[in-house]
Amino acid sequence: MTEIKDLEPPPHIHTREDETFLLLDGEMEFSVKNETYHAVAGDTMFLPRNIEHSFKVLTARAEVLILLTPGGFEEFFIEMSEPAPEMKQAPLPAGPPDIAHLVATAARYGVKFPENKQVRQP
Known about the structure:
The protein is mainly beta. It has two helices and nine strands, in the order ββββββββααβ. The relative contact order is 0.27.
């Protein structure tokens, strides 16, 4: 998966799955509770369920392999996607995601966004 600078999700909590990020290229910063971790290509970051976290891409983009366990959250990505109009690499997003849509969709998959942040629950 390609993560793009300035298109990261707001701080959130997964209630159903753990996330493991394997950074293949680029640099990222992970915020977990009150700690910040800097990651470079080759680093792995484990984010257990029920812990508030966020991440920021520090380079223009980062290539990341993300493992979500147990399975099921892949349906969130399918629901948030649009079918490709043709069989070729889709263009990068033109701007930030629709946060209200992201929050509403993520809630169906057990993801919470703390109310004291910039995002309101649906």
